[in-house]
Amino acid sequence: MKQILYFLIFLNISLFSQPEIKEVKLDESVRRGTLENGLTYFIKENNYPKGRAELRLVVNVGSILEEDTQKGLAHFLEHMAFNGTKNFPENKIVSFLESIGMKFGPDINAYTSFDETVYMLQLPTDNFNAIDTGLYILSEWAHNISFDSLEIEKERGVVIEEWRLGRNASSRMNDIQLPVLFNNSRYSERLPIGKPDVIKYFNHTDLISLYTMWYKPELMSVIAVGDFDSEKVESLIKQHFSVIPASKNLVRRPVYEVPVHSDTLVSIATDTEASSYTAGLYIKLPSSSITSFESYKKALIKQLFRMMFNQRLYELTRSEKPPFLYGYGAEYNLIRTVDAMVLYVMSQPYEILPAFEAILKEWEKIKKFGFNDQELDRQKLQALKNMENYFTERNNIESADIASNLVDFFLRGNILLSPLDELEITKELLPEITLEDISKLILSYQSEDNLVVLANYPEKDDNYILKANDFISLLNEVKERKIEDNLEVTGITELVKDDLTAAEIVSENFIEDIGVTEFTLSNGVQIAVLPTKLKENEILFYAFGNGGFSIADDDQLPKVRYTTSVVEESGIANFDVLALDKYLTGKLINLNPWISGLSHGFRGSSTNEDLETLFQLVYLGVNYPRKDSLAYNNLISRLFGMVTNRSLRPQTVFYDTVSLSLYEYNPRIQVMDSLAVSQLDMLKSIEFYSYLFSHASNFKYLFVGNVDLEIIKSLSSKYFGSFKNADNSISWVDRKVRYSPKKMNKNY
Hints:
The protein is an alpha+beta fold. The strands form three sheets. The protein has a seven-stranded mixed sheet. A six-stranded mixed sheet has the order 1-2-6-3-5-4, with helices on both faces. Strands 7-11-8-10-9 form a five-stranded mixed sheet, sandwiched between helices. A hairpin with a 4-residue loop joins β13 (516-521) and β14. The protein starts with a helix and ends in a 29-residue tail after the last helix. 34% of the residues are buried.
């Protein structure tokens, strides 16, 4: 009796002491199954876009599985699928797909990577026979590719040409650096594009044996997402794919690892056509996926960390002397078995080491001090806003995006949650995430093992030569340096402080044919509104007036060519860019002034919740352009850095020459080069902008989206109605910029 009592007490304690185990589950609207031959399938009804379906055949086979005599044949095999199958000989597949309006590229495509091959079709659903035939084609690719000898020989040249077109500076430097990044593992020798000598001379039997060895149903999945009846599609999948014979012996796909290393590996690659100076620190990690509640929480922590760290780097690019042109930090999947936390910078010419030092310093700063509550709270707010909007727009998620997520689920286990589940889990987890959680994540990045540094720069100056030890020494030195923490600056609490007087609506007209309402304010502002429900919570905004750069005389134009960049970099009213960014955190809104050859205005978007902020930004943009010498000097520095090496890219030289030649080197046609940057003038740019936008009462203002017309009227009256009546309207000026009628012949 005592034993029973003790057992019951133990059982009671165990039951009540067990933590609640929470699960994340695949979106329940996804129909899934496994055929007797081992092939899996996933089907989801989705009517965005209407009348379309996305089909995928996913094969868990990529270039990593090739033998030495097969390098590039996984990709070659993908090409052969379109050249004929047992029941679709020669070009019958392409002919059928084109007969129903599909085109290679946007609708018919495929890709081969290190670890998988994916065939993709987008088909119309108004005729269900197209879906039937599309699935039949996928099943043929899965087990009935014909391998006609003549077609194989013809395809050699196609693949070689694809390889040749890809031989740019980036690919040549990759040839040098991938063996280092992958530590001379199998991955470093199995680029999907393959080896030209293999492509030219492989035996047909090597191609066929790769297909028969690895294209097995247990390594495949069929995915269908679109505007259809999922039960009918499931029936078709069973019909077409159950005929594929099961493997006599189940194939186990090998997994290849990248060897660990304790030394920091460094690879420096240069090329005569390289056009930028870059460096990256790769902290290699075991691959991870979202398969549980806990892993979802970790993914959220990583997201918040990335947002905070990249905000820090963005702020550095807006400092008085920016240490680099561009920088980011992010963890992403390199290959099936390896993730990497990457710290990447693009520097000014010849400034790779100072730029790399700056990002390392910021990295050490967050390792020692972490972030502060204000930073975390802002990014939590933004992450929640993003997720709420994702849920609001759940009926407008592209079928292609859902299909991609299901491909990822099959290959890597990343679970596709329903939008409701994802929102509820995010709402539950975000408040729980603390700075301590962020610090623990940072700690996981602090291993001294598996570090790789990759640096690239143009091969043009023998006096600028970097060595591996330059980076090793910098890594060690920065770790020992005394570093101080950042101080948080108080942000904006209110955008518009002016006492505004609303204007009256003096006329209104409804255009029934297109559903547009037009109205005019007493100060002359004209507004047109088109309510739609294509997106649940997106409002597109566009404003335009005539004039643009045509207003500037020939001698003035070079000084104001980058006016919108000058204005945007300076902030608005009394708020610099960083203060404005912090204020707008948690708002899904963007607004940009634009100036083209013959017109100018604003373009942007917002949600219904943030619509008034959009109006406020337009009001401030018209009335209070900001002069900021620090921001201007920063912009000029970055522009010089970006244009310095443009001429090293053959494509850039070609397109610049075509552009200039077409207009017979008209002085109003200018390419982006150092001369163009040196001619800019901040005060002239602000003056030019102020003149163009002082006529904002003559603009036409357009709103399209799920809008409330009465709210648009009220906000327009308040903010646009406050624009001053322009003394006179402005229009574009014909500067006689015309295409040349002459023939061109230039050789390089």
